[in-house]
Specification:
It is built from twelve helices and eight strands. By secondary structure, it is of the alpha/beta class. It has an eight-stranded mixed β-sheet, sandwiched between helices. The longest helix has 29 residues, at about 170-200. About 40% of the residues are buried.
């Protein structure tokens, strides 16, 4: 593979997470082209000093690295499968999937891409929208070590921490584990603070105190930030993975149902448990 430094970066998807990342990558001096099915995002993309490119195939053909930030497995397969626009990527191009999907999807797409001389890695991100805005995301990256190393300067534009998790697909496993723990903590935080509120405690003082205790966790420290936008999808992927490997995860199954109930009442302690 070529070892030339990456200068031309393409983005597929300019949503809540993708848009701030686009801004960070452009601010680092990379030439950034962006494609999104919603043409209404063009102004926001251009405000971030990136070039709007409505043709995904043209974007693929002109980029050294392509970061894909779409929502679902079927969207990825449509982009990367036979006849998809990203099939126009030249040999040596790195395609990084930022989406949270099933690991098998990544393995299948990576194998197909390798047959065309294209390097596909998964590069999942953690810490949410606030960290995307600040450029302080954690990136899990699965793929060949030399490919990941070449991609790191791009990922470092929006990530303060980058962890190489192993071969392609392993970043999805790491993200699934992250999500399983994160949603468990968010539920437990609500139950603890709601109980304390019913006993008349100042929940903000308690939350500060818990951050000094063994109960400390990331979502407790960043209270009221999580939108729970992808909670059900995240937990569905965890359940699919567990079922395929014959692993019983009873708490994860319960949390999937609890997340559905929690979402409309998140951070409303006076309504939680009623």
């Amino acid at each position: 593979m070529t070892s030339a430094p990456i200068r031309k970066v393409g983005f597929i998807g300019a949503g809540r997470m993708g848009l701030p990342m686009i801004g960070h990558v452009a601010a680092r001096g990379f030439e950034v082209a962006v494609c999104d099915i919603d043409a209404g995002k063009r102004a926001a993309v251009e405000e971030r000093k990136a070039r709007w490119q409505p043709d995904a195939a043209a974007l693929a053909a002109s980029s050294q690295a392509i970061l894909v930030c779409v929502g679902y497995d079927h969207e990825l397969r449509a982009l990367l499968g036979p006849g998809g626009p990203l099939a126009a990527a030249a040999q040596g191009t790195i395609i990084a999937v930022l989406s949270t999907v099933h690991p098998k999807t990544i393995v299948d797409l990576a194998q197909a891409a390798a047959g065309r001389g294209v390097h596909l890695v998964d590069s999942t991100v953690c810490r949410g929208g606030k960290a995307a805005d600040e450029g302080t995301l954690l990136s899990f990256v699965g793929g060949a070590a030399n490919v990941v190393e070449r991609l790191k300067p791009v990922l470092a534009s929006y990530s303060t921490d980058i962890v190489h998790t192993g071969e392609a697909g392993t970043a999805q496993v790491a993200k699934a584990a992250n999500n399983l723990v994160m949603w468990s903590c968010l539920i437990a935080n609500h139950e603890a603070l709601a109980l304390a509120q019913r006993y008349g405690m100042d929940t903000e003082k308690l939350r500060a105190a818990l951050q000094m205790s063994s109960a400390d966790n990331y979502v407790l420290r960043n209270w009221r930030v999580n939108t729970m936008a992808w909670s059900e999808d995240d937990m569905d992927i965890v359940q699919q993975m567990a079922a395929e490997r014959g692993v019983a995860l009873p708490q994860a199954g319960l949390n999937r149902e609890l997340c559905r109930m929690l979402k409309p009442k998140r951070f409303k302690l006076e309504e939680y448990g009623t």
